[in-house]
Every structure is written in structure tokens, then in C-alpha cells.
Amino acid sequence: MSTPTHLSIAVVGAGASGIMTTLRLLQHHRARSRGTLTIHLIDRAERPGLGVAYGTPLRDHILNMQAKTMSLYPGDPDHFLRALPGLLADDPPASAPPATATDHPDAEALAASYVPRRVYGAYLARCLTDALTATAGSGARVEYHRREAVRLAPAPTGVQVDTEGPGPAVPACTHAVLCVGDLPPTSYRYLLGHPHYAPSPWVDGFPDAVPEDAAVGVIGTGLTAVDALLSLRAAGHRGPLYAFARRRGWPAVQPSRLRPHTPYLLTARAVHALGEDVPLARFAGLLRDELTDRVGRDEVHDLLSADRGDVVPTLLADLARARQPRPHWYEVLDATSPLAPDIWRRARFADKARFLRAHMGRWAVLRHPMPVPNARFLADLLSSGRLRTLRGTYDIRPATDGGFDVLRRTHSGTAVHHPTYLVNASGPGTSAWTLESDLVKDCLHQGLLSPHPLGGIDVDPTSMRVRGADGRHNDRVLFLGPLTNGVHFYTNAIETNLANADLAARWITR
User: Fold this and answer.
1) What is the pTM of this model?
2) Model pLDDT for residues 382-406, shown as the tens digit of each residue
3) Could you report the per-residue pLDDT of 217-227, keeping only the tens digit for each?
4) 13-32 per-position pLDDT tens digit
5) H or E stretch including 476?
6) Per-residue pLDDT reduced to its tens digit, 459-492
7) Using CB atoms within 10 A as the burial measure, which of 15, 16, 236, 278 is most buried?
8) Rounded-to-integer distance, Cα 209 and Cα 324, Å
């Protein structure tokens, strides 16, 4: 199929993935030096760049990665750092510095800082503005539609995106790229509508509706749960807190300074050399060897065999390790994360299914560690006894007094805990048919999308084209972001989403 002279592309979602896609489309349009390009950026948010991740107004909600790793331009890794002083000056209150792992306000400390996520949202919007300025006169334009996309339908020239909201409708486009981002958890749907239940930490009214002395239960012990606790602190909550989980403990802690690491055992060449349909244990062996070379055999053994159930000592030990000047194991995981999609694609399907079922929780604890400032906050809550971490949760039931009974398996039998309020912070939903998205559900019912057997939406990993119910890839409809987790495994990293946005843009503008 030849590329039309005029491209009109509907990018559904103006969060991080949508902005990345728009930037890459503008870049590749300018490179091809022909035709015109109109991008219809569609989102119900007030302005581009917000989304779930970066739309939070709280300064307490910081990036989970250090500032030096967050550039939107792989060829210019310091792009975000150069923009950061101006972004911070524009962010009220301008006098408040970003959270850092050190007390030295120098350039190195700024690079190692954890910036408020709302500042990164402003960075995304600024990058879009700058890209439009750079492409002025090239025949490219971006129109922002503050509307909600609810349906996708074939059209004579491509696709039609039906929307609801103020302003004019979106015209038919040659292509549509769905960048719906993280969607709310799909667990505990039977609690929806309960006046004391928040289905995610990001819903309107949480935590302002929670009395300051109420007992609050948080479902989950991952990074989203930390965000929920930070929201409660910002709202002035002082009551007892419970974190309920099935098996998983709190995330590990990132090193204070993320040192560069160049892999030499687990490399792109080594992954490619293993071929296709590879036992996952082969890749795991390479990762273990890379870790051993970095931090030593004893630390790797302790890392992989430790029981993180003893929460306070474990967290304090993680914090002490994070401050040490010697190499840190997380530097290996961070340096090898760009290989994760290719490793996942090459691994045997049965091994991948087994990993998700039996080991994903433990992997997430290590692969998604929390920033030092958040770890300190959590350690204070736990050490004071105000926050309890309760594993073994297996059921939650509404109680007659308006609270909840949370049932948990213990060594001595079933324990029942009774929070008055409950917030679901178990992380984004990935089960395609139950996602909170009218657009995704409609596309599934039409057969335009199909679920991936390992979670999320099925796409072609080389172009991001969706696979329909008929098994064929759609040349006009593409999908990227966290919900391609079944195909790519790790879809929360900036570098992964940048790479996928580039693949999508290359396909469309080829």
C-alpha cells in the first residue's frame, strides 16, 4: 500500500504515549519532505500532556525515575535536564526544589532528582509546542480536540473516530493510533458505587472525602499504593492505614545515584544469537551472570532468595544499600530494560505464561523500585506503626456499617480487618474485555481489536498495527502504550514507548 500524499491521523489519547507518537509523526513527516500531515489529537483532558501518570496536581507525586533518564529524545539524553530549570521556575511554588537523594543543590543532584510528575506533564506539552514550531512551513499541523473517543469505524478513506464532547467532530482520517494509556484496575468491580470505595487513587473526590481520622485500607503494595498514601498525607489524613496484598511486598529502593552500566553479557547480540522459541531460563541465566559481575555472587543470591515479608527491616536495609557508593544491582536491570521486548518475543510461550502466573509479583518488586524520598516516607509510616502491611488477602466484603471486611489468610487461620474507607491501588487493568474504556470495548466487539493471550491488546511488534478478530493486522489502526504488555512485556519504560511510537510513525509515513 502506497502512502497517501495527505495523511490525516487521529491520535486517541494525549498523555505520554500520545505525545510521543505525535512527536515522531511530525519528525518523520519532515524527513519525508512531501505531502501534508494533519494530526487530530483527541483527549478529554484540558490540555495535552496530562494523562493518568502526569495529570496529578500534587507536588508529592514524583517521577519514579531520576530526571537524567527522562528525555523524550534518545539522541539527546540531556534534553529534559536542560529544560528542567525553566519548568521548575514555572511550577508553583517555584521555590520548592524537587525531591532528591542528596542535599547538595548542584547539577549532579538535579540530574539525580525525582521531579514532580506534573512538571513532566508540562515538559511533554512544551515538547509538542516546540515540535510544531520546528515543523512550521512543512505542511504539518496538530489540532487538539477536547473530546472523548467512543467508537472507531471503517471509512472510505481510512477510519472514522466518533467522539463525544464540546467542539466540532473529528473528520475521517487515514489512520488512527490508540494511545489510551493506563486504565483503572478491573478487580473488585462489585464494590463500584460504594460511597466509601475509590476504584483508583485518581478518581475525583479521593482523598478529600476521607475524614482525617478514618481507618483507610489501600489495596496493593506497589508504586500506585505509595501514590495513594502520598495523596492521603497531602489531604491531612492522620488515621490508621492498612495495605492489603495477596503475596507481594513493597517495592525495593533505587540507588541514590544511578550509575551508568554497559552490559557485556546480556546484550542485544547475545539475545539475538539465542534465536527463537528460547527457554526463558536461558535469558534469566544471562541476567544472573550480568548481575553477578556487577555486584557479586553473594549479593545476587541474597537478592533472589530473600523473603521480603519482614517489611520494616527489609525497607531499612534497602535504604541503607541505596546510599552506598558501590555499584547497585538495579543499574543492571535499568541498563538491560531496552532488551525486554525482544527477550519476551523470543521466549517460549509456556515459559512466559508460567512467569506471569508465578513470578511476576516478585519481579515487579525489583524491576519497579521506588525513589529514595518515597522510601523514606514509607519507612516512617511503617516504623511508627500507623501503616500495617497485611499479606494473604483473599476476599473483601462490604460491611453493614458502611465499611469493609477484608479477609486474610494467616498461619493461625482467617483474620478479618475492618477499614472504613478503601482505595484500589492494585495497578492498571490489563484484561482486555473488562477494561474501563468504551472505545476499547466497542473495538473488541467489532473485531477491530483482539486480546493477547498474555494480557492487553494484540499488535504487530514491528509496526504496532492491531490484530483483528480475523487474525489479520489492520494497516489503518495502530495501538501502543501500557496495554500492549502481552506483546512487549515491559511497557512502562520511557525508552520502550519511545521506540514503539517511532515504529508506529515509521509505518504510517513510510
Assistant:
1) 0.92
2) 999 999 999 999 999 999 999 999 9
3) 999 999 999 99
4) 999 999 999 999 999 998 87
5) strand 473-479
6) 999 999 999 999 999 999 999 988 999 999 988 7
7) 16
8) 41
Terminal Cα distance for the chain, rounded: 10
> What is the C-alpha separation between 188 and 185, in angstroms, rounded?
8
Number of other CB atoms surrounding residue 445 within 10 Å? 11
Question: What are the C-alpha distances in Å from 344 to residues 127, 348, 369?
Answer: 31, 8, 21
65 vs 489: CA distance, rounded Å: 19
Tell me how far apart the alpha carbons of residues 89 and 430 are, in angstroms, rounded to a whole number.
37
Please state, in angstroms and rounded to a whole number, the distance separating the CA atoms of residues 463 and 459.
8
pLDDT band at 100 (very low <50, low <70, confident <90, very high): low
In eight-state DSSP terms, residue 46 is S
Residues 6+ apart with CB under 8 A from 385: none
The bridge status of strand 387-391 relative to strand 241-245 is parallel
Mean pLDDT of the chain: 91
pLDDT at 72: 94
Contact 280, 352 (CB under 8 A): yes
Residue the block writes with cell 507481594? 248
Residues 6+ apart with CB under 8 A from 344: 352, 487, 488, 489, 490
List helix spans (H) across 51-136.
51-54, 79-89, 107-111, 117-134
CB atoms within 10 A of CB 85: 11
Pick from 62, 13, 5, 71: which is nearest to 504 by CA?
13
Q: What is the pLDDT of residue 95?
A: 45
Residue 330, helix vs strand vs coil:
helix
CB 43 within 8 A of CB 18: yes
Q: With CA atoms as reference, report the closest residue to 67 among 134, 14, 120.
A: 120
387/365 Cα distance (integer angstroms) = 19
Cross-strand partners of 40: 10, 143
Q: Which residues are within 8 A (CB) of 148 and not within 5 positions of it... i.e. 6 or more apart?
A: 42, 44, 163, 164, 165
**Greatest distance between any 2 Cα atoms in the chain:** 72
Question: For residue 175, what is its C-alpha cell?
Answer: 489512520
How confident is the model over 424-452, as a mean pLDDT? 90
169 DSSP assignment: P
What are the cell numbers at 181? 494509556
Q: What is the pLDDT of residue 132?
A: 87
